[in-house]
Amino acid sequence: MSLIADEIIRFSSVLKIAYNFLTGRTYLKRKKFREKQKLVAVALPFSDLPFAAGTIPVFPIRMHIFEINKYLSYLGSASSIFGWESVSRFLGFVKNLGIQEISKIIDDIIEDVIVTINKKYNEMYDIGIESGLSSDFCYGLKGLTGMHVTKGHNVDACFNATIRCSAYNKYLESLKAINSKPKQIWVDIPPRNIGNSLGLLTDSLSNALKDLENLTGKTVTDNQVRDFFKIGNQIKRSYKTIIYEISASDFYPCNPATFSEILSLLNITYQDYNSNATRYRDNMSSLVKEMKERIRKGIGMDVAKMPRILVTPIFGGWEPKSHEIIYELGGRALYADWEILKLLEEIDTSNHLNPLEEYARFLLNATETGIGCDNDTLTNSYLRMAKDLNADGLVFFQLFGCHSISNCYSMLREKIRHDLEIPTTSITFNKIGENVEQVKTRLGAFMEMF
Amino acid sequence: MNDLGLLSDFSLFLKEKKEQGIKIIAFLAHDNIPEELLDAAGFFPLRLIFGGNDDLMNASHDYLPPSTCAFAQTCIGLFSIKPSQFQFLDLIDYFIISNHCVSDICASEIISKYNNIPRLNFYVPYINSKNSSHYYKLELSELKHKLEEIISKEIDDGSILNSIKKYNTFKKKILEVNSLEILGSLKLKIIQKAILFGPDFLSELENSLEQLRINPPKKDNNSKDVLMTGCSIFINDYLIDLIEEGGANIVFFDTWIGNHYYSQIIDDALINSIKDPLDIFIHKFRENKNSDHSVPNFLENKLTLIENFYRKYKQKTGKELGIINHVIKFCDHISLMSSYLKERLQKKGIKVLNLERDYSRANRGQLSTRIEAFLEMM
């Protein structure tokens, strides 16, 4: 892990994103109690409308107390005085001095961030099962259920958008059985873009926006919605730059394991932008700048000879050690779930357009051409991404109990063999840390093909 | 429950249909497929309502992981292995890909793709709301249009109305079966056959009803009565035998094969008052509140239905009524809600057994024990 820690501290933006994720509880408490803002639970990247309505979207795990390394806590306090960049520079300086004890502390900080997040995810998984959810469901749903069982009572509303996964939709229904207090705000995304389904979805979004307005007691103008979408678009732009320009390039601003670590952190935090879109946008923009600056200065690693391995899907749960293992085996793991599912497309914010209709268009496009209402479309999305990233191989995480995404693997394998002719493998996953040795063996055999 | 006779009859029946030039559209059974529209277009709607076994489930593992709903696995297995009594599956002309649940989509897509059966898409919204109803109509229009393309002629309103009326009459007759005081397995057998054969079975159904009224078969009055909810008991499934061997009798099937089907009777006055027959389907969709497909009020609606039935039954018979919630392994809809359903009903003093299982024979002993233990508790 020290390798990853060494690198991550050079990116102040990464430290900020990690810190904001872990200290979400304090931030959210301030928003809820001091500033009397409304918290809205979200999952998957569907936070745009709650943000636009002036509520505080929250991926519920962030309401938990995370065991933050005390030094990260100090760093957080120091950053409020000196700024994150100074803190990052200082850490880099200390690391370069090679003082063993201090160096170890820094390694511990970063390792703690990753371990803490994973530990909490597993804790939520266990609580999900204890609360009565069948162990037959996927890691993601068990975790989400655990999050709502423990912290769902703190939110004022849940923003529920239906997707192709029937288990997910039923989980959304179960939220009111878990906690009866939060208002349940629903948006039914039509499975296909036929007839006037765009108009119907626009109307549904408008109703959802009204529900959110009732929650805050404030009316939202089209311009306010548009302004938020502009922020969202900037985030997406930065995210895409990282995926397409940097991850597909031959020179990385850090070692590939660190790079994957950053991508996985983005994958988690993108769901609610750490509850503050402007701050997240600024961090994303800094991250791109920092990465580009390092590449420009030649700081980082030549990865031209390392095969690009697209590892997907990870959003419902995957073994986070994978990228480290792939790196140790000579490859680089690329994570791009949200782009695969077309959830990084920009929303047209032109003044003459109805922003809700444009958001509806974005959702319909993601549903019809990204996530897909069937496996034919979904597998095409994976294929497209593998082509666009010029991937040399694809590792598919088959989640135990996932009936939506994991079920497409046999079709995907066939298409990859036929259309791309690159190696592919699937790894079954149930819980973080449960089968690391098996993952190592599978990846070991897979990486021998390169 | 061995239904070789039924399958053999059905095989002949389908062959006759084909000889008459009637094309067959199959789908994984669920309650939002407009079978009346298929009928109006001159097709025979074939619901795949067959239970599985180890071989059928295993045969699906080339396509889907074993952690897939056992019913979806079975449907794929039926097409992969095509056991002799299921050769009639070769007669299918089109397959509807729908989203009752995501396993429905995946299994249907695989069946269509690997058996070269042309697909017809029909996606149903998850939420039961005004906008969703509008969307449902879009899907209906799309499907109607596709069917018209196949038959190269327009499906006129009169034909659709006639089909709706035909199915209405048929469902009313099945509803009468439900009210008979006969053994649950007999009731189920009739309902299964009716749903499989469709309205062509009407005259036989009427005869059966008459016979059963004149000469009702003896029923063990000491058996413990149960309501079956959750997943259906499909054709060839041994579950009902286990339940009856354990000393219970199912008095009400709150499942696809049962109440979900025959409760979708449309009021005659409504049929006559609506101008566009597609709006009748919309009405049916809106009223289909017990469908496990829909969110967000499935649980509440289900609880209300069970509670009302329970109270009325107890009042009428003075007997205790247990609830068996049948959960086919890895069924998203029923499984996810099962703990909440049980908890809520138990709070009201209603005894519930969440009976989760797949189709493997190895489960029989364990299932029997669980059923017997539940009945003893009752």
In short:
Chain A is α/β, with parallel strands linked by helices.
Question: What attributes does this structure have?
Answer:
heterodimer, A: 450 residues, alpha/beta, four-stranded parallel β-sheet, 19 helices, 10 strands, 9% strand, B: 378 residues, Rossmann fold, 2 domains, 16 helices, 8 strands, globular
Description:
The complex is a heterodimer of chains A (450) and B (378). By secondary structure, chain A is an alpha/beta fold. Chain A has one domain. Helix content of chain A is 58%, strand content 9%. Chain A is built from 19 helices and 10 strands. In chain A, the strands form 3 sheets. In chain A, strands 2-1-3-4 form a 4-stranded parallel beta sheet, sandwiched between helices. In chain A, strands 8-7-9-10 form a 4-stranded parallel beta sheet, with helices on both faces. In chain A, helix 14 links the parallel strand 7 and strand 8. In chain A, helix 2 packs across helix 6 and helix 10 crosses helix 16. The longest helix of chain A is centred in the first third of the chain and has 31 residues. Chain A is globular, with a radius of gyration of 21 Å. The model of chain A has no long low-confidence stretch (mean pLDDT 91). Chain B is α/β, with parallel strands linked by helices and 378 residues long. Chain B has 2 domains: 159 residues, Rossmann fold (3-Layer(aba) Sandwich); 204 residues, Rossmann fold (3-Layer(aba) Sandwich). Chain B contains 16 helices and 8 strands. In chain B, strands 2-1-3-4 form a 4-stranded parallel beta sheet, sandwiched between helices. A 4-stranded parallel beta sheet of chain B has the order 6-5-7-8, with helices on both faces. Chain B is globular. The mean pLDDT of chain B is 94. Classes of the chains: A alpha/beta (450), B alpha/beta (378). At the A-B interface, helix 9, helix 10 and helix 18 of A face helix 5, helix 6 and helix 15 of B.
